Structure formats: structure tokens, C-alpha cells
Amino acid sequence: MTLSDLFKNQAPVFLSPMAGVTDAPFREAVCSLGASAVVTEMISSEALVRNSGKTLRRLAGNGKNSLKIVQIMGADPHRMAESAVINEGLGADVIDINFGCPIRKVVANGSGAALLKNEGFALQIAESVVKSVKIPVTVKMRLGWDSEHINCLSLARKLETAGVSMLTIHCRSRSQMYRGKADWSRIKELKNILKIPYLCNGDVKSGDDALLALKESGAAGISIGRGALGRPWLLKQVMELVQCGRVVPDPGPTHQHRIVLNHFQSTLDFYGEQHGIRIFRKHFGWYSKGMNGSSAFREVINRAENIGFIKNYLEDFYEQRFRDILGERKKQQNAQY
User: Fold this and answer.
1) Which of 11, 125, 293, 309 is the residue whose CA sits 20 to 30 A from 209?
2) Own/partner pairs, 264-272, CB within 8 angstroms, 24+ separation
3) pLDDT class for 288, splitting at 50, 70, 90?
4) The dihedral of CA 186, 210, 175, 78: what is its sign?
């Protein structure tokens, strides 16, 4: 499969890169449930060139039969190109350049969304990376730096000319961070000025959101980030709706328990038990959000250190949820008679 194959007669659904979240175990969980493509965590070009063990670990693993898309970040065209070459050698199918991260420490280094303030330099980085590798190069960006400097249209045209194969646009400015509502309509004009595909990103939390985002943005596909936290099955649900018109319900409690347990075990296998438990606590929080008893569940699970206890407690939590659902159904049935 190639990047262009994903856009043949369908709207693909990508998993957005999220630092500290889209590690190998999470990407594998999403792929096992269904997604068009997933993207690694943001990789520092400087760290990769220095052969950082932690950075190399972020590149490990991916779902079977899924494109390996590696996102790189930096503010040195030469280092970015060198990083791209290393990733290509490690088996990357696509290089994605980060022009969108709004985090202060990233922006302070002139990387991520800071590059939106200097189109010429951003273009220089893109050109350097494109020329350095034989695989497709894509870019993740935002609408602009702030409401007074919305320049995604002009930069998008230049990036296409530089040889970039696809764009993903988070429909907020950097100054918004993750506040307010993503404005999908701000990128609709790209449909008339670009030949390369672009993805719409931001505030897509359901299949209905995706349908509306595609309509308002004119995008060729969807990229989902925070909406997938605690719901790795969301991408498959969105794919079924936008591609086939089918509504797929959330997995039942028994299936959800199996998904969480498999994800937890793969995290332990990947990081080791002690570190894996700490890493996964945020996922337990996301998976349990909104469920009955979730506060008490998180309070216990965030202190637990014994893997056997955690797995047993997790099973009890989902069994209780299953009983709650059955009890509610019985109440509704009795109320009809």
C-alpha cells in the first residue's frame, strides 16, 4: 500500500501524532481495530541524529499492513533532511514534517508552529526534506500563528510546489492552542487551489463530526487525535460511516475490557513492567472516563503497582459495568409493560 492508494475512491481516516500517546502499543491497538493510517509521536530531528535511544524507541512498531508514517520536528533544514534519511533507512514509508505543534518549549526552539511565522524558512525545510528522500513527504500544520496571521492557504500552495505530497491541517491557530472550536471552513478554499490531498484535523470526536468536517473543509480525509483517547475504536467507526454509510456502535463492555487488557499488556511488554504501569495510568483514565464508578476506579488504579491486582481490578470494573447495563435494560423493558 502507498500513500496515494489511501485516497482512491474513499476518504481515509488517519490517527494524528500525539506526543506521549501515539507510541507503538497505542498505534498497534488502533490498527488492530481499524484505521487507514497511523502516525508516530513527534520525533526530534536533533535527538534522532544523535542516536537517542528514547527517540529510536518512538519509531518502533506499527500495525500490520499499515503505512509507517514518521513525524519529524526541528528548525535546521540540514538536520531535518538527515533525520528523514535515517527514518527512510529504518523503513519509514512516509515522512511527516511538524509545522503545527503549539507547545511552548517546541515553539521556543523555532520548531513546530513557530515555522508558520516564517514561510520562507518553512519552505526551505520542506524542500530540504523532500530532496533528501525517495518516499513521500507530508506536512502537519495549523491555520496560522494567530487570528491576525492566518496563512495556511499561501503556505499550502508553496509546500505543494516544494514537492510535499499531502497536508494535514489542524483548524485552529497556534495562539488558540486547543481552546475554542476548530474552524473547518477556513480550509475549504484549498480544494480549489491544491492538487495534492489534504486532511482536516481538530474536534472530530464522532462519525457525525467527521461527515460535517469533510463537508465544511472540502478535505479528502480526516485526521483524528484527542477524540481517540480512550476510544481507539473511533477511527474504524468513522471509516465505516464516511466510506460505507454504516453506523457502528461502541464495543460492548466485554469487548472493551479485552481491548484495554491487550493494550495494557502490550505496553508492559514494550516498556517493561514498572515503567509500563506508569505510562498506562493516563490510558486507564481515558478508557474509564464517563463510566459509573470511574473516579473511584482511577483513584485505586493510580496507586496500584501490582500487575495481577490491576488486571483483576480492571476485570471487576468492566463486569460491574456489564451488570449496570443489563440492569438498566431490564428496567426499561419492565417499564414498557
Assistant:
1) 293
2) 264/310, 264/311, 264/314, 266/24, 266/25, 266/28, 266/29, 267/23, 267/25, 268/307, 269/25, 270/23, 270/24, 270/25, 270/60, 270/61
3) very high
4) negative
**Long-range own/partner contacts, residues 86-92 (CB < 8 A, 24 or more apart):** 86/48, 86/49, 87/43, 87/48, 87/59, 88/133, 88/134, 88/135, 90/59, 92/59, 92/68, 92/135
Mean pLDDT of 220-249: 97
User: Domain range holding 291?
Assistant: 253-335
- Position 16: which residue type? S
pLDDT at 131 over 70: yes
- Of 101, 152, 171, 200, the active-site residue reads 101
Give the whole-angstrom CA distance, residue 314 versus residue 309: 8
Contact between 22 and 15 (Cβ < 8 Å): yes
Phi and psi torsions of 39, nearest 5°: -125, 140
Q: String of b and e for 268-284 (b: at least 16 CB within 10 Å)?
A: bebbeeeebbebbeebb
Are 167 and 196 a contacting pair, CB within 8 Å?
Answer: yes
Grid coordinates given for 99: 509545522
Same domain, 285 and 205: no
Name the pLDDT band for 45 (thresholds 50, 70, 90). confident
Task: Clarify whether residues 184 and 69 are in a common domain.
Answer: yes
CB 210 within 8 A of CB 202: no
The H or E element containing residue 179 is none
Pairwise CA distance, residues 155 & 138, whole Å: 13
Neighbour count for residue 156 (Cβ, 10 Å): 22
DSSP 243: I
Q: 103-129: per-residue pLDDT in tens?
A: 999 999 999 999 999 999 999 999 999
Q: Would residue 101 show up in a list of annotated catalytic residues for this protein? A: yes
Comparing CA positions, the residue from 232, 182, 188, 229 lying closest to residue 209 is 182
Contact 118, 158 (CB under 8 A): no
The CATH number of residue 54's host domain is 3.20.20.70
Last residue of one domain, picked from the residues 244, 272, 287: 244
